[in-house]
Amino acid sequence: MLYQRTLAKKVEVSGLGLHSGKKVSLSLHPAEADFGIRFKRTDIIGSPIIKADACNVGATENATTLVYQNVTINTVEHLLAVLYGMGINNAYCEVDGPEIPIMDGSGASFIYMLKEAGIAGLNRFKKFLVILDSVRVEFGDRWAQIEPSPRLVIDSSIEFAHPQIKKQQEVFDYTCENFIAEIGRARTFGMLRDVDMLKRKGLARGGSLDNAIVLDDYKVINTDGLRFHNEFVKHKILDTLGDMSLLGYDLAGKITTYKSGHHLNNLLCRKILENKECYKIVPANFLCPETTNVFGLPWAVCQI
Ligand SMILES: [Zn+2]
Which of 18, 62, 89, 184 is the one with CA 20 to 30 A from 123? Predict the structure, then answer.
């Protein structure tokens, strides 16, 4: 439970890019301890690499985009959430396009990939970013904060003037099992009129009922309905987990968000990193079991 993790072997998938509508291939590769999560764009000459780092976040409209030396990789948040959710600290993610495939709009396919690859323990302790003092960011009536807690908790609230959403709140107490059961399968969502508008602008070309919950003015129009009665707020937690994983450590702190989004999540990461007295980095062997005993899995972790 205390040791850093990677994948046991390479695994590949292909799917549509949400914005381009084009097929993208994604492969995940094992990496050594303290490598972190890095993306490689194999479709660009020289195959540039972008590190998953909160300071490399560029655009945050509709999705989180990483930028480094003019190279971008879009829609990283669901994959990052799954890597964090399954306790994986180190991986090389290769893509042959500008965005991570959207799959079904949730993390379910990435969970399946990692299950197929297997998870390997590395011979080095995980490092935790332990929150010592609260940090808060606000943007209009939206806000996000993090405060001290022995383990990672995300308390998320959303409010939409839509009869199917209205007010929703969910408290997610992080463990690998809770992540897989409660959060990983929650899909992104959008309004039908917004999807039409985005398509007219040449965006969301790959967007369809196969990769999002879509709502008209009254109801969900996907014939299969919802996976959870509050799937919307659960997806917000998935996004928050992916965005906060860009801090580059396992987290010990309670995050509370109200109407948050990728922009606010990134502001919170940057404010934490700017306020060095608000946190400390601690190897897992110095922390109590309450903090570290969250990385169990329903299947075994092999040692390499
Ligand atoms: Zn999302």
Answer: 184
